[in-house]
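Q: I'm writing up a methods section and want to include an example of the input and output format. Could you take the sequence below and give the corresponding predicted C-alpha cells, formatted cleanly so I can copy it straight into the document?
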Amino acid sequence: MLGLDVGLRRIGMAVSDPLGLTAQGIPTLQRKNNRTDLAAFQQVLHQHSIKEIVVGHPLRLSGEEGSQAEKVRAFADLLRDTFKLPVHLWDERLSSVEANRVLRQADLSIEKRGRAVDQLAAVLILQGYMDARR
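A: Here is the clean output for your methods example:
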C-alpha cells in the first residue's frame, strides 16, 4: 500500500510492509505538474509493487470538506483513473499536527522538521488506515 499526504508543493509518501502491518516513509515528492508527478508515482508503484493507495483527506474539524479537501478528492480521482488501482480517502484532520508534535519532541531543527513532516504525516495516514482495517 502507498500512503500520501497531498499538499500544494509537496506530497509526503509512505509504503506498507508486505503484510500490511507497518508503514515506512519514503522520500517526499516535490510537485511540479500532473504529468511529472504521475510519472514519479508510476515509478513508486512499480518499485514497491503497490496494489492500493491511501490519500489523506484534509477535512475541516467539523468533518466537512473545504477547498483543499475538494482538490485532494480530485487528485485521488486522477490517481484512480490513471493507475486503475483502488484509491481510498482517509480522514487526516490531525496527521500534520501530530507529525509536527512528534518531530518537535524529537528536538529536530525547524528546517529538518519541515523536510520530515510530510513524510511522517503520510506514515501516520497509512498506519491509521491499516490499523482501522484490522
